[in-house]
Amino acid sequence: MNEKPLNSLQQSLKTTFGFEQFRQGQAKTIEQLLAGHSTLSIFPTGSGKSLCYQLTALHLPYLTLVVSPLLALMKDQLAFLASKGIAAASIDSTLKGNQAQEVMAGVRSGNIKILMVSVERFKNERFRQFIQSVAVSMLVVDEAHCISEWGHNFRPDYLKLPSYSQALNIPLTLLLTATATKKVKLDMAEKFAINEHHIVQTGFYRSNLDLAVVPVASVDKNAYLAEQIKQQPHLREGSGIVYVTLQHSAEQVAAYLQSAGINACAYHAGFDSDRRSQIQNDFMAGNIQVIVATIAFGMGIDKSDIRFVIHYDLPKSIENYSQEIGRAGRDGQPAQCFTLANLDGLNTVENFVYGDTPEFTGIEMLLNTIKSEVITSVYGNISDSKWELQILALSNAVNIKQLPLKTLLVQLELAGVIEPMYAYFADFKIKLLKPKAEIINSFNEQRKDFLQRIFNATEFKKVWGSLNFDTLLQDKSIERNRVIAALEYLQEQQLIILETKGMTEVFKINLNELADPNLCQTLSHYFKDNEEKEIKRIATLVRFFQLDSCLTVNLARYFDDNRFDENRFDSAGESNTVPQCGHCSVCRGQVAVLEHSQAQIPWPSDEALTQGMLELAQRLKDKINQPLSLESYCRFFAGMTVPLFGRNKVKQLPGFGLCEKQRYQAIRDRVTPLFADMKYTTA
Known about the structure:
Layout: H1 6-17, H2 26-34, E1 39-42, H3 49-58, E2 63-67, H4 71-83, E3 88-90, H5 99-109, E4 114-117, H6 125-131, E5 136-141, H7 161-167, E6 173-177, H8 182-191, E7 199-201, E8 209-215, H9 221-231, E9 239-243, H10 247-259, E10 264-267, H11 273-285, E11 290-293, E12 306-311, H12 318-325, E13 335-341, H13 346-355, H14 360-373, E14 386-389, H15 391-398, H16 402-414, E15 418-432, H17 436-441, H18 445-456, E16 458-460, E17 464-467, H19 469-472, H20 480-492, E18 496-509, H21 511-514, H22 519-545, H23 551-558, H24 606-619, H25 630-638, H26 643-647, H27 664-682
Helix pairs in contact: 2-3, 13-22, 14-22, 24-27, 25-27
């Protein structure tokens, strides 16, 4: 690739985007990309990361493919690009009818320069077949910290992006994030072979954010929160976000604020998608001033006039905290970031971590499932052994939540036990928009015969027909890819409507590695180590909130902002011998000391716990083929949900959540001797 002169890029910046000059780091990122260097760019939230790929895409010959973690983030960026006259689109679950085909046609013709997808879209065989047929100039990974196992939002499917990029022969990669420690930064770069010289980091500090940690007793939080919101000087011209941990807390706090005369609304993942979209649209339009939300809300929200972000409960980590406060003050005007802090909710935050750690017995069940379901070739060739799965059914079968199960599968890939081959839809349904004979007769003889075979293998009922691939592919001259291509073409020509479901992943199995007697223990250690790391991350957050030195400086140093290595800093970023921002609670002399503000909830008696264990064992009798583990009983008393509990309505038992106010490790310590006694008496 050839470097574009800076004045040419500035002209594009002005004529297309209407900006007079680049922000810090943007020009360097774009110049590196156009010179052919893959780049990692780390800019603070609201500092214009997206422009780096948007402008670059205009100067590249082919498609720019953007992987984004959330639909809301895609829609926001697509709206911005449309306002600038840039042809961009997404392929996602909201597309109806022929919309996906229209997008694909636009990409093939070159009319669409930027295509946005989720990482999960790569599992879709129809999408993979399409994207392999077009030239891609650049892969962009937004929120790229999701790639790193050391990051706070690790998403296992992101680990596959380097191999996807290689398979598609994409010559250029841009990784974008706002939050990365030094370890995460180097890990991301290594995974995509990005030279350390091509990491662009602009600094973390935002001078318009006022950080405050305020110790508040739980009983006083609602009143304090309402008073703080009413005192916000610019609320009439702006808006705010209140973050809580639990869904029911979002609704309760929003109701309290409404009763106090504040225009507030709850938002959480428990609402259906239409309701969430409506709430978000109303907030963006200014019809709702205050959103009380779980962390399901926020990523991709580019609202410039958010005047405050208040953490009603403790965040999950320093990384989450920095992302969430980063949504405030994107217009550069002053914004307040309060944390109403105590230690009462510490157990809730920790329990999310413990609840996502697969049990040893679950990992064991997964490995046994693979062994029992592995398929070898008709010649008994071990090298051709394969295994098929559907993630929801597998999650239920081995009692592991879907996200940790996906992480477990990735670890099996990294260990060489399984190797992804392909994925396919188990169910293809066809709705004819014209008579079958008319469709067939519109093609030449060779294609007529091919379509006739497809329709012969399709069992039509009143409206829809189900295609039986097993029957169709018995004819070895017919290839699955050709069948899918033909059906896609029929849909593009508006001759049929095609619906697909039942995503099935197929893996190649290394039986020798699968037979490793230490495999289960190794995988269990991995998750236990990760559990310990996440619990330490929470402890680091609590320590951070109680620091007696500048919060802003310490936050920047945490994210490897090297401007503070020599303890020099002031509000304009100029040298100063005192490492202080001057506008956080510590700099104002308000050092926080966090304590438990609620009276300790008394423990249930041993008799009550034993009764709860017996009731759980009875409810799940004959539902699993092995005794319940210690962890199952601990999760039951902590009120955690796992697939086994959900299927068997365990929440209805009086013992469920009996110890939910206690810390998980304390529950484990208390239940361990009772578990041992129960095993002894029932043996």
